[in-house]
Design goal:
alpha+beta, 5-stranded antiparallel beta sheet, globular
Length: about 190
């Protein structure tokens, strides 16, 4: 008799379809962007120093170790605070999943377990694309002739892992309410039987 196997369809919670830009900037202390809006996500992370971010009508400071998710079509800008010259990582990408709603207007404090994802995105980005240093006018990625095999997919998977890890930490409390404990299930069954 031939065995029957069930092939489980893997859920794709955060399917990134395109990477638009990858930047690592070492801005001067008086740098200021003009601002922009576009139909894809942008994540900004201050690796060193501090920066002032505009998101829609709000303006706020991001200190070292903090990041912010700009949702699609949100006007945004970044500038140095005239005191500290910031180093800033920016990645922009396309993801139309409903699960991305958690990231709208989301400011985060970078956890140590997330930093390797950012470092890996930068490393794979440099081995896969020509990433001009400190070019805020970069509007698209140019593939290297000697691009590392699978680099684009590695960038996507590192970014997806980072986002899923952030999503897990943001929804941990909610998940515990969604998935009942054994005791809760037993109490529910007892009350249903009664």
């Amino acid at each position: 008799m031939k065995a029957v196997y069930v092939k489980h369809q893997i859920a794709n919670l955060i399917p990134i379809s395109k990477i638009v830009t990858i930047h690592y900037f070492e801005f001067e202390k008086d740098f200021a962007s003009k601002g922009e809006s576009h139909d894809f996500w942008e994540f900004v992370y201050v690796d060193k120093g501090a920066a002032v971010v505009t998101a829609g009508k709000r303006e706020f400071s991001l200190k070292q170790g903090e990041g912010y998710f700009h949702k699609p079509n949100e006007f945004h800008a970044i500038r140095a605070n005239s005191v500290q010259a910031p180093n800033v990582f920016i990645v922009s990408f396309v993801c139309n999943a409903k699960s991305m709603d958690v990231f709208k207007n989301k400011q985060i404090k970078m956890q140590p377990k997330w930093k390797p994802y950012i470092a890996a995105i930068i490393e794979e980005g440099r081995k896969t694309f020509y990433l001009p240093f400190n070019d805020p006018n970069l509007k698209g990625l140019c593939l290297r002739e000697d691009a590392v095999v699978g680099g684009q997919q590695m960038i996507r998977t590192y970014l997806e892992q980072f986002l899923i890890s952030v999503l897990r930490s943001e929804t941990k409390e909610a998940e515990t309410k969604i998935f009942p404990t054994r005791e809760t299930m037993e109490n529910h069954l007892v009350s249903e039987i009664l």
